[in-house]
Amino acid sequence: MRKPKEPRSRKMSGRAFMIGIMLLGVAALAVRLIVAFPHGGFMSDQQLFVDWMEQVRQRGLASVYIEGSNINYPPIFLLLMDLYRSVVGWFGIVPAAGELSFKGVLIVLDLILLAAAVPLTHSMGRTRSRFFVLALLALNPALIFGSASWGQVDMLHSMLMSATLLVLPNLPLLAGVLFALALLSKFQAVTLLAVLGIYFLRRLADRHGIRPLALFAAGFAGILGITAVFFARASGLQAMVKGAYLSAVGMYPQVTMNAMNIWYYFIGTSPTTPDTTRLFGTLTLRSAGFLLLALFVAFAAVYLWKSRLDASSLLKSAALVNFAFFMLPTEIHERYSVPALVMSIFVCLYDRRWAIPTILLSLGVTANLWMVQAEAIGIYTGLIVVYVNVALLLWMVVALCGELRKRHGDRPVFDDVDKPSGSIHEPARFSRSE
Question: What does the domain layout of the chain look like in residue ranges?
Answer without folding.
Answer: 14-410
